[in-house]
Amino acid sequence: MKILWVKNDFLHPTDRGGQIRSLETLKRLHRNHEIHYVAYNDRLQPEGLTRAGEYSTRAYPVEQHVPKRGSPSFFAQLAGNLFSGLPLAVGRYCSAAMKAQIRTVLSENRFDSIVCDFLSVAPNIPDLSRAVLFQHNVETMIWRRHAEHAAGAFKRAYFDMQAERMFRTERDACRRAAHVIAVSANDSAQMRELFGVERISAVATGVDVEYFRRPSDVGAPQHDLVFVGAMDWLANIDGARFFVREVLPLIRAKRPGCSLVLAGRSPVAELRGFAAEDPLITVTGTVPDIRPYLWSGSVSIVPLRIGGGTRLKIFEAMAAGLPVVSTPVGAEGLDVEHGVNIRLNVDAVSFAESCLALLDDRDLAHSQAAAAFELVSTRFSWSKIAEDFESILRRAA
Hints:
This protein is an alpha/beta fold. It folds into 2 domains: 2-206 and 382-396, Glycogen Phosphorylase B (Rossmann fold, 3-Layer(aba) Sandwich), CATH 3.40.50; 209-379, 3-Layer(aba) Sandwich (Rossmann fold), CATH 3.40.50. Helices cover 46% and strands 15% of the residues. The chain is built from 16 helices and 13 strands. It has helices at 17-30, 47-50, 72-81, 88-91, 96-108, 139-149, 153-176, 185-195, 209-212, 234-252, 269-277, 291-295, 312-319, 348-360, 362-379, 382-396, and strands spanning 2-6, 34-40, 58-62, 113-117, 131-135, 179-182, 200-202, 223-228, 260-263, 281-283, 297-302, 324-326, 343-344. The strands form 2 sheets. A 7-stranded parallel β-sheet has the order 3-2-1-4-5-6-7, sandwiched between helices. α1 (17-30) packs across α16 (382-396), α6 (139-149) runs antiparallel to α7 (153-176) and α10 (234-252) packs across α14 (348-360). The chain is globular and about 65 Å long.
């Protein structure tokens, strides 16, 4: 097949779950198919465009700056978005330059399939009814959960407004698309119910087990708990805040020396502040390789109250040989079993109890980790995921 793939960014450096999923899928599709890739080019990350040949036949960089979250330009976008019908998470990726590039590529090529990777770039595609919409999350649910957990009336009102805009935008895009690909059966069911979409399929989350497998020469764990993820993403920020403020004190009451690592890119000031105030908390910032932080931890935590989508951090921790403690939201859509290959906890008290149980009983921790490794190694390879994805593209075409 000849495939046009549209996304808001190039895939290196690969430091977000959505990037990982797209990259691993595309690398395998690229072995047998011609991939044309359109994305915004971040000049501060030249590796992105340079390495695009690893997963695409031809890349088309759109030379337009997308402001980073927290920058003055971003806040200018936020202010302008107050008068828009689109949610900020979508509107900030709309551009005449992207639309023009896609039209040019379409006029010069005949494609068997068009993939819109993430809802955020959907408004740039001239005819979404020709495209497969790759939905890594149910975006509406993320924003509704932001509103639910917002501190203060002003933030709650803002998130409510964004959630309503996101609902309309996501509903309309899902209905217009030729087909929708969700990342779990749970997400697929939610989109059917929320948006009335019928042309939808689910493709599971994958993991590169050999890449994350713990080497035999790695020593004893150096940290008790590790939370891996992009630390500038609102869901991870909220999860880290919840854990440090509500869960960790309960653990420390029984295990005073419990240490925590927050490992992931671009931590916001609030998270950096946790480390400044507590010598047992480490905030790494962007790292070239996340695996050593998993291998040096005793328990992986996923304390998410907000979010949706791929849950890659859970399968990666399982492949690295770590027992995982999560909230139900954090593991939503994964085929996991509480008490066997994961521990799922609704509130701070039960979350703390699960962490303590695994830290205090290493036989229990090893048993859960072994069951988790068996799950991911036998059922969730990226090759199988890419085969399923390809099959859906063929049917949609």
